[in-house]
Amino acid sequence: MIRPIRIYGDPVLHQRAAEVVEFDQKLKDLVSDMFDTMDKAPGVGLAAPQIGVGLRVFVYSYPDDDGNPRRGVIINPSLSHSPLPRGELDEELESEGCLSFPGERFSLHRGETVVVEGVDLDQKPVRIEADGWFARIFQHEFDHLNGIVYVDKLDFDSRSQAFEAMAKLGWNKPGVSWMPGVDNLED
What we know:
The protein has helices spanning 25-40, 132-145, 156-169; strands at 5-6, 45-47, 57-61, 71-81, 95-98, 101-107, 113-119, 125-131, 177-178. The protein is α+β, with helices and mostly antiparallel strands. The protein has a single domain, classed as Peptide deformylase (Peptide Deformylase).
């Protein structure tokens, strides 16, 4: 089932998500809905808070360089990343979007490599080492679980532009969302 995606300003996006303690059918249904919603959006990752559920769960779907699928769920993750690059942002290579800030893109430094660990739906350990855009996806989704939307990390000028866009669009308040497949918004 496709669920509405919350937009910046909804309280669930700005608080730390709770650890998953019950691995039951309700969690399986949530993950299934997250995949359906992410695919319809379309996106490469989606965290549970983005659909209004304050749990530490995210899904991802991003092919490797040879086009092989990399798709999964990580529950109760921990993440470590390499140091952030210094210097000027690369407007093309570091441009990022977000399904909870649809239609807008801003550049942000991210670590080039990450190690993410957690469990899957069967509570089996998951450990993934990633680099490049795949690493960026994990950092982005992990931030969502900590109540951080990527625009919260932007430099002053970009953050000002983001807040101007939100003011024009009527965002940055509770209860604003969009429905993939119905509303014509993309990140």
